[in-house]
């Protein structure tokens, strides 16, 4: 068996900027060491994560103010994409791994981790799938979605988005799964996207508990860790070790 995967279960958010900086510091450490992969899981404080395109948008100052007025801390991340919102009803999963050739397999990682989120949600009887849906916020080819109801399969809602950062010697893949309380996310993004002048369909912003009422963050985390256990075996890692 290979190296173990280290699990960091961060019990309390440090705040939007601090949480993001911690991910980058773990990435920086991974690139200069021979450690195994690191899995970091936490529930964030209310945050609107803007992309660089948003920061350059003439409406950014107003969009930033809209986030603050709604109680969401604005953050500009170094990866691409448009604004995304999350809060304590969400689960952030950061996978950080040393890699001598991190640029190889970028698209494969998007597919793999998207499929892993789908597999975790399927454990909870949620018919999830991977792919962009028309009008979604922070649109991405590998977003995870599911129909809000079985009776209306043609109107899916976005449940998770993914992004990654590649540096010399390592890569960092981050997934945000919206599990509970989609209303505040839908509301703040409506104001933010209006300020940015970017069109989207608020009906596409959902949460896992919209699809399967009563689902909790803890249940999604447990299902995801089951999938990660299978992943670690497939990749030849010895085990997942709590830090």
Automatic annotation (TrEMBL):
* Signal peptide region: none
Any one GO molecular-function label of the UniProt entry = ligase activity
Keyword entries, A-Z: Ligase
> From which domain of life does this come?
Bacteria
Q: Does the keyword Ligase apply?
A: yes
Ranges for domain BPL/LPL catalytic come to 33-236
| Classification via InterPro entries | aa-tRNA-synth_II/BPL/LPL, BPL_LPL_catalytic
| Protein name, UniProt field | Biotin/lipoate A/B protein ligase family protein
